[in-house]
């Protein structure tokens, strides 16, 4: 399956965190990525510094200790079907890293593991 029209999905702002040894934050800012920060009403001692970020916080801390350049790309999304956000994330990474030629990047292939993670599609007869 190929997802077309990925460029239309740039509606969720991209955020990033980086280790202090990563020296090219200007490029990320030029790509309109915003430096990630918790909302002022959230106490960082009571929550992860990256809600829903899994091990990203720990990787960042370890890379910081070792002086390894490291960047985390963050797209805030809700639970459920996040295919659009996944394609948006890969498109944002492509903007930065040039993984694929721009003329080819609108046709990202969906991994086969995503085929039916939410079960079968609703029967068309119910509509």
From TrEMBL:
Recorded hits in PANTHER family, A to Z, give: PROTEASOME ASSEMBLY CHAPERONE 2 (PTHR12970)
- Name of the molecule in the record: Proteasome assembly chaperone 2
Give the source's domain of life in one word: Eukaryota
For this protein, the record's InterPro entries field holds: Proteasome_assmbl_chp_2_euk, PSMG2_sf
Q: What Gene Ontology cellular component terms go with this record?
A: cytosol; nucleus; proteasome complex
Q: For this chain's UniProt record, which GO biological process terms are given?
A: proteasome assembly
| Keyword Cytoplasm in record | no
Q: Which UniProt keywords apply?
A: Proteasome
* Native organism taxonomy: Eukaryota, Metazoa, Ecdysozoa, Arthropoda, Chelicerata
């Amino acid at each position: 399956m190929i997802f077309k029209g990925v460029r239309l999905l740039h509606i969720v702002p991209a955020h990033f965190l980086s280790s202090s040894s990563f020296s090219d934050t200007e490029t990320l800012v030029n790509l309109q990525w915003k430096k990630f920060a918790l909302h002022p009403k959230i106490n960082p001692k009571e929550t992860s510094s990256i809600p829903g970020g899994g091990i990203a916080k720990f990787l960042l801390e370890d890379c910081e200790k070792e002086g390894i350049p490291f960047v985390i790309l963050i797209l805030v999304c809700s639970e459920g079907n996040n295919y659009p956000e996944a394609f948006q994330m890969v498109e944002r990474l492509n903007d930065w890293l040039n993984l694929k030629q721009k003329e080819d990047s609108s046709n990202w292939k969906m991994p086969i593991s995503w085929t039916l993670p939410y079960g079968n599609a609703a029967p068309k007869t119910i509509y």
